[in-house]
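Request: Could I get any protein with tokenized structure?
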Amino acid sequence: MSAGTHATQLQQQTAKLIHVQSTTPLEIPQNLPVIHIGKPNDLVPPDIDVSGFTNAEIVSRTHANIRLEGDAYYIEDVGSSNGTYINNIPLPKGNRHRLRPGDRIALGKGDLVSFIFQLS
């Protein structure tokens, strides 16, 4: 049986980040244990590359990670220079935040590179 023809499988939720400043949707890859958010670099290439967005210079090359555990998504700042903010509250480095639909994620200060987390 080919992939995708098995109707009894649980429907996978699709998680997205909607870039607030441009309304660009970015689908969160589902097949990765850790999704790296940042800009191209030699150590950890980003799965979600924000380098094309306005004000991307405030985003670190390795900025934050999203993990899917069970049916929950968690975001963690991995030591970015300008911080990660969830609903305008700083997320301390190493702390995880369980993402809920509608959460606003700002990469860096000033809410210049922001995303809304969505599930569908």
Remarks:
- The radius of gyration is 15 Å.
